[in-house]
Amino acid sequence: MLNGNLLCGAREDGMLVRLGKGNDGWALALSGVSQMLAGERAMPGWVRANADVYGDDALRRRLLDAALAFVESLPSK
Questions:
Q1: CA nearest neighbour of 47 among 76, 77, 22
Q2: β-bridge mates for residue 33, sequence order
Q3: Which residues lie closer than 8 Å to 67 by C-beta, 6 or more apart?
Q4: CA-wise closest residue to 23 among 4, 40, 5, 46
Q5: 22-38 pLDDT tens trace
Q6: What pLDDT shows up at residue 27?
Q7: CA 72, CA 2: separation in Å to the nearest integer?
Q8: SS3 per-residue string spanning the chain
């Protein structure tokens, strides 16, 4: 959470990252990154990175930096 806005989430099997609608194309092009689903519904602007991506320090940092930049642009809740 940052200023009341969800930024990311992590579990043993990977992580969820909030990049913002229209900001996720570059991440979706990466191996091991997919669109986040809520049931069968796609969640635009959110991506899911599998454990291999989560375990890659540089890639994890890139995703988290992008998420931080997006969430910092949102109004506080």
A1: 22
A2: 49
A3: 7, 8, 17, 18, 19
A4: 46
A5: 999 999 999 999 999 99
A6: 97
A7: 7
A8: CECCECCEEEECCEEEEECCCCCCHHHHCCCCEEEEEECCEEEEEEEEEEHHHHCCHHHHHHHHHHHHHHHHCCCCC
First vs last C-alpha separation in the chain: 11
* 60 Rama sector, left if φ>0, alpha if ψ -120 to 50, beta otherwise: alpha
- Estimate to the nearest angstrom the gap between the alpha carbon of 77 and the chain centroid: 20
Q: Which neighbouring-strand residues pair with 17?
A: 8, 47
> Which two structure tokens, joined as six digits, stand for 17?
């990252």
Q: Is the pTM of this model over 0.70?
A: yes
